[in-house]
Amino acid sequence: MYKLKPIEKVIAEVRRIKEIWPHPFIEFADDNSFVNKAHSRRLLRELAKENVRWFTETDLSIAEDAELLSLMRDSGCEQVLIGFESAVASALNGLETRSNWKLRQFDHYRAAIDTIQGHGITVDGCFVLGLDGTGTESFEQVWEFARESGLYEVQITVQTAFPGTPLYARLAREGRLMRRGAWEFCTLFDVNFCPSDMSVEELEMGMRELSRKLYSAEAVHARRRRFHEQNRARRAGGNP
């Protein structure tokens, strides 16, 4: 059961941080900070009084709530991290153990990014490399999605089979684990399994090459310039 921290405790922690750093940039470390929208609205209204900058993790549903986005912006939210996981819909099928929610959202990915960033909140889009059904073409697909969608930041990791998870159990049954119980390789950047549609070497090389492209000074500058130009244009047109 998801347990919400009382708002007064959150604000007390923020004020304690401000005693140490007068102008902090705070992370609210929660996999989905806005799962309870009513609680979130109350928190954001209180947070707006504290004059801090912050970021957190969430899902695409915030793009459907204009009031929430405005409250986030006005309370100092600078960035949200969202797990898109894949740049192609087919790789999302079956990725979630209880539903295919992200698959159902796939066609709205770009519009959601535009809506969130249109409120002045940058999006850090996360993608997982090596998902079943993806081959070497997936690296270029992530690169193109990042360029076309206007994402401000991009995070890439490799699919990781953590011991004790359904993924680990399935890959063990299929004989695809490279090192059983090797927690030291569960870094999100080390390959500890055999991919379905490429070799281990191709996955490792593809991740390195994609990292070079995504995090080059030129690519980073282009993403940030696009965000600022689009938001200047929105403000000039009278949009939020």
The whole-angstrom Rg is 19 Å
User: What is the terminal-to-terminal distance?
Assistant: 36 Å
List unreliable stretches of 5+ residues. none
State the CATH architecture of the largest domain: Alpha-Beta Horseshoe
Mean pLDDT: 94
Quick one: how many beta strands?
5
CATH fold name of the largest domain, please?
Answer: pyruvate-formate lyase- activating enzyme
Bin the strand percentage. Answer: 5-15%
Given helix and strand content, the structural type is alpha/beta
Number of domains: 2
The CATH superfamily of the largest domain turns out to be tm_1862 like domain
Largest sheet features: 5 strands, parallel
Morphology: globular
Give helix % range. 40-55%
Strand order of the largest sheet: 1-2-3-4-5
What is the element string, with H for helices and E for strands? Answer: HEHEHEHHEHEHHH
List the total number of helices.
Answer: 9
Considering the chains and any ligands shown, give keywords for the structure.
alpha/beta; 9 helices; 240 residues; globular; 2 domains; five-stranded parallel β-sheet
